[in-house]
Amino acid sequence: MIKLNNVEKSFPVGPARYYVLRRIGIEVGDGEFVTVMGPSGAGKSTLLSILGMLDASWTGEFYFLDHAVHKMNAKQRAELNKKYIGFVFQQYHLLDNLTVAENLDIPLSYRDIKSSERQAIVADTLDRFHIVGKKDLFPSQLSGGQQQLVAVARAVIANPKLILADEPTGNLHSSQGKDIMELFKKLNNEGTTIVQVTHSETNAAYGHRIIKLVDGWVSN
């Protein structure tokens, strides 16, 4: 599903360059559950942003579902992201001016789904995540943990082929966190590919393998 060849990300610092990622070459197969681990500042979130096509300022080759992402323009990348990828951000990224139900509807609006079907899917998802009572509230009216639950629900609602999760349980109680990881495991068993960034050994244990990043390099 994913293949990176010699991907690098850097910034100019005076006459030199500071490298966030160096010569990254990894593959993620269809249906894998991969964990990216490493110390703070290792480049984990940057790698996830590149995989999610949110960051375009890098060099190298990136193939996603046989699409050459490195040759695409911004609009083409955005279309690929909307069609196939669900993203769980550490900082939620919910839209403040939309209710919980409206936030959940956004990924469905990118798909060719009738309005009545979308409403039914949103209702089912609210029920699944035990947030039916929050559907008409705005993000600012929710606790951090509740916002994270909504963010996870939004990431999975449209059955994406790939879920990218950046510290997905970082703001949740341990029982909520376990529920989210069990959900990811179930989705993965049903065929969804997952790449998560985490510091948690417990969360990492849900995956098939670990990619370690140290100072921007993949560490063997």
Outline:
The chain is of the alpha/beta class and 220 residues long. The protein has one domain (2-219): Rossmann fold, CATH 3.40.50.
Give an overview in words:
This protein has 220 residues and is of the alpha/beta class. It has a single domain (2-219), classed as P-loop containing nucleotide triphosphate hydrolases (Rossmann fold, 3-Layer(aba) Sandwich). Helix content is 35%, strand content 28%. The chain has helices at 44-51, 74-84, 100-109, 115-128, 144-156, 174-189, 201-204; strands spanning 2-13, 16-28, 33-37, 59-64, 67-68, 85-88, 162-166, 193-197, 209-214, 217-219. The longest helix has 16 residues, at 174-189.
What structural category arises from helix and sheet content? alpha/beta
Please write the CATH class name: Alpha Beta
Uncertain stretches: none
Strand % is: 25-35%
Oligomeric form: single chain
| Radius of gyration over all CA atoms, rounded | 18 Å
Number of strands: 10
Look at the structure and name the CATH superfamily: P-loop containing nucleotide triphosphate hydrolases
Largest sheet: 6 strands, mixed
* CATH architecture descriptor name: 3-Layer(aba) Sandwich
Helix fraction, binned, reads 25-40%
- Output the number of helix runs: 7
What series of H and E elements makes up the topology? EEEHEEHEHHHEHEHEE
Mean pLDDT: 93
Strand order of the largest sheet: 6-7-8-3-9-10
**Domains (count):** 1
Shape: globular
Distance between the termini: 22 Å
